[in-house]
Design brief:
The complex is a heterodimer.
Chain A lengths: L2 H10 L12 H20 L6 H26 L7 H14 L6 H25 L4 H20 L10 H8 L1 E2 L2 E2 H18 L2 H11 L1 H6 L4 H27 L10 H11 L11 H21 L3 H26 L1
Antiparallel strand pairs in A: 1-2
Chain B lengths: L11 H11 L5 H6 L1 H17 L5 H9 L2 H7 L18 E3 L6 E3 L20 E7 L5 H15 L4 E7 L4 H13 L4 E4 L4 H13 L4 E5 L9 E4 L2 H15 L3 E7 L5 H14 L5 E8 L4 H14 L3 E6 L2 H13 L13 E5 L3 H8 L5 E3 L6 H15 L9 E3 L6 E2 L4 E2 L2 E2 L16
Parallel strand pairs in B: 3-4, 3-5, 5-6, 6-7, 7-13, 8-9, 8-10, 10-11, 11-12
Antiparallel strand pairs in B: 1-2, 12-14, 15-16
The chains are: A mainly alpha, B alpha/beta.
Protein name (chain A): ABC transporter permease
GO molecular function, one term (chain A): transmembrane transporter activity
Subcellular location (chain A): Cell membrane
Chain lengths: 329, 431
């Protein structure tokens, strides 16, 4: 186990008695980057920090942020979930098929349940059947995307008449847009789960050294099934938010979402080798991506150049951390 | 003075018609009789004026920077096969074999083929139809129209394959059909260059090949059924020029270098290139993705307080832009409290609903219901090979369609249609 991994395990071991919501040292560099971007944005565009623009930035990244929390948990356990785009799209399509019932509970419930179930299936394949998560979730991506097309006959549906569905994308709670509210709630829940609960300790232990965790009595199969299930649920929530924002359930939605989410997760400090990562870091990374995209759009930078700049930002933030980690080892 | 040196296909008669149209001398009925020719005349007219220079610096710079002239000059504009004149209301109604939706296809009378056995009734003709995207309403409708036409002829068997936006897969599918000695092939290529060699191989094997909507790099291809991209962009410009004299424009464009982007956006810029009041304020490539169009528009609304126009090269872009404008509660945030003018292409049912509701201002139809033309063309090529009929033209232009607006208008000789008058919209109905 590396020094960093030990530190993570120790942090997670704090339990209920040590509620540790403060950022780790590694996250501080990201906060600095975010701060620099925000200051630059305000200098370039005086209205950058206006409540309206902050709403636009946060609403834009709420969906991807929530999904990145789920992905972060999976990555901390040393696994990967490439199926998130397929799970998100199949979940909303299942909900879309139920639109004629007019029952919000049924539509929203089925959407969330679908994501949860597909996540559990992913978890079972990885944890119980020993299939590589790269392979099994790649297969799930293909199957779920194809099923979404088969079930919907490739046709979009429109949930605009289901007010409860649309609430997820266009509603507000105490004046806060629901996507932002959900992002905040999920962030708090995930930070608590990873840093101040027994489950968090098991999560890092599983990713840090699965064998050691097993010998310590941790049911790593259960841990992995739970995180995959959670990631599936996050994918469904993201699908719900995005389709409600657009009022449009599209069976071809979310192309390449898995890579975007993975990029945010890595930018947030999670190591694909497992055992390392924080939800707080992922949240900051989500905001960095949101601010970068907002700034570039306001500057009129082309979509293609935005992809280059975003990739460069990821490299600038991640590479020094990788070098330090190698040095520590 | 109008000049018509650029396009040989547009003759002197058309010049007179266009001149008369621009002078407001033609009646609405006359326009309805020949909207294709009227629009081609306007294309030629605006193209010539743009070639002489653009007085609008902002528009001219973008036009120059993205090299629109090269694309526009290479894109064919011409008359319809066999002197066909399209009129609103034409076309057959059927249930889409794949979408299961009720469809009215506008061009089923174009290059007509009577129902029943074709060519040699004792033979069965196998036709392959390869395209990309059983996950997109536009493309499913394309396949619907092709499969419907094949089903009208009992001795025609069609195999429809989705190449899933994989050029290699499309090439392999075509090679397989060549090996199986299919009688004809129809394809909807995603990109031009990669499909040239497979098409050439099929032609060399004696199999007629017809592309629909998009082009391939093959010069041997039997026929190309071409869309009306030029008329799309032109009409967006015509409408804007009609309703506004000045304003800031944000562009939501398709993939850089794609035909749909280069021709539609280029034609739009040609029309407004000599109107000094317009300013290109934002220019985004949102690549047919509603989410990207939504986000870029949301961000543009934060950067600029005085957007007057949202130009969109497709329906997906227009819907994304509209949603962003609605979310920001900025529909009426153009200078002087006016509504932001939203221009669109693609006559999806959801877009038409927004026009009827007064949210999107105009749409220039780009119907996917042209797969049937491809099937009829390839059957005629097979017939020509067997000495049973003449071959259809190599370039088969699809009729230019008039723009759709909430209320009826006559703009530079083009009579618009209202959503209620437009039975050809594709895709699922909005609740």
């Amino acid at each position: 186990m590396t020094i960093i991994e030990e530190k993570s395990s120790i942090n997670a071991a704090g339990g209920w008695a040590q509620m540790r919501f403060l950022p780790e040292i590694g996250d501080l560099s990201r906060i600095v980057v975010l701060g620099v971007l925000v200051v630059a944005g305000q200098i370039l565009y005086p209205g950058f920090l206006s409540p309206e623009n902050l709403r636009v930035v946060l609403t834009a990244v709420a969906g991807i942020g929530i999904l990145a929390f789920g992905m972060t948990m999976v990555v901390i356990t040393g696994e990967i979930d490439l199926s998130v785009a397929g799970v998100a799209v199949l979940s909303i399509v299942i909900g879309g098929l139920l639109l004629p019932t007019g029952s919000p509970a049924l539509i929203i419930g089925a959407t969330l349940l679908c994501g949860l179930c597909l996540g559990i299936v992913n978890g079972i394949f990885v944890a119980k059947l020993g299939v590589s998560s790269l392979i099994s979730t790649l297969a799930m991506l293909g199957i779920a995307s194809a099923l979404a097309n088969i079930f919907s006959a490739g046709q979009a549906t429109y949930p605009e008449k289901i007010a409860e569905y649309m609430w997820f994308g266009r509603g507000a709670l105490l004046g806060v847009p629901v996507p932002i509210f959900l992002l905040a709630v999920m962030a708090l829940a995930c930070v608590f789960m990873t840093r101040s609960s027994t489950f968090g300790r098991k999560l890092y232990a599983t990713g840090g050294n699965a064998r050691a965790a097993l010998l310590s009595g941790i049911r790593i199969d259960r841990v992995k099934i739970v995180v995959f299930a959670f990631c599936g649920l996050c994918a469904a929530i993201t699908g719900l938010i995005e389709s409600a924002r657009l009022g449009y359930i599209n069976p071809a939605a979310f192309p390449g979402l898995e890579l975007k989410v993975l990029a945010v997760t890595v930018l947030g400090g999670a190591a694909l080798a497992g055992g390392t990562g924080s939800v707080f870091g992922t949240l900051v990374a989500t905001l960095i991506i949101g601010v970068v995209n907002n700034l570039l759009n306001q500057m009129g930078v082309s979509f293609y150049m935005q992809q280059v700049v975003t990739a460069l930002v990821i490299l600038v933030v991640v590479v020094p951390g990788m070098r330090n980690r190698r040095f520590v080892k | 003075m109008l000049k018509f040196t650029r396009r040989a296909a547009i003759g002197g008669v058309m010049s007179v018609a266009v001149f008369a149209a621009t002078q407001g001398c033609l009646t609405a009925q006359a326009h309805a009789d020949g909207v294709h020719d009227v629009l081609n005349g306007l294309i030629a007219s605006y193209s010539e004026h743009a070639k002489e220079g653009m007085s609008n610096k902002s528009v001219g710079e973008l036009f120059e920077k993205d090299g629109f002239r090269d694309y526009l000059d290479a894109y064919p504009v011409g008359g319809l096969a066999d002197g066909f004149v399209w009129k609103p209301g034409m076309g057959a109604t059927f249930t889409g074999p794949y979408s299961k939706l009720e469809i009215k296809a506008p061009f089923t009378d174009y290059i007509p083929l009577p129902e029943g056995p074709v060519l040699d009734p004792k033979k069965t003709y196998k036709i392959g139809f390869v395209f990309h995207g059983f996950n997109h309403p536009w493309l499913i409708s394309l396949a619907d129209a092709a499969a419907w036409e094949a089903a009208r002829h009992p001795n025609v068997e069609i195999e429809v394959i989705d190449a899933e936006f994989d050029d290699n897969k499309m090439g392999q599918v075509i090679d397989t059909w060549v090996a199986k000695k299919y009688d004809g092939i129809v394809l909807w290529p995603s990109r031009e260059a990669p499909m040239g060699p497979p098409v050439d191989r099929a032609i060399d094997a004696g199999i007629p090949v017809v592309s629909v909507d998009r082009r391939t790099s093959s010069e041997k291809i039997s026929s190309e059924v071409l869309g009306n991209f030029y008329a799309n962009g032109l009409q967006e410009g015509l409408y804007l020029k009609e309703v506004l004299k000045a304003g800031n424009i944000v562009l939501n464009r398709k993939d850089l270098g794609s035909t749909a982007d280069s021709i539609r956006t280029g034609a739009f810029l040609e029309v407004i290139g000599n109107v000094d009041g317009f300013n290109i304020q934002g220019n985004y490539h949102t690549n047919s993705q509603r989410t990207l169009a939504f986000q870029s528009t949301a961000d543009a609304l934060q950067a600029f307080n005085d957007i007057s126009v949202s130009f969109n090269t497709g329906g997906e872009e227009a819907m994304g832009a509209l949603d962003a404008i609605r979310e920001a509660k900025r529909l009426n945030s153009a200078p002087d409290g006016k509504k932001i003018v939203i221009l669109a292409n693609d006559d999806a049912k959801e877009v038409l609903k927004e026009i009827a509701d007064g949210n999107i201002d105009m749409v220039s139809p780009y119907t996917p219901l042209i797969g049937d033309i491809g099937i009829r063309a390839v059957i005629k090529h097979i017939g020509a090979k067997e000495g049973l009929n003449d071959a259809p033209p190599k370039l088969i232009m699809t009729p230019n369609l008039p723009m759709i607006t909430k209320t009826k208008m006559v703009i530079e000789g083009v009579e618009t249609m209202t959503p209620d008058e437009w039975p050809y919209a594709y895709g699922p109905a909005v609740n």
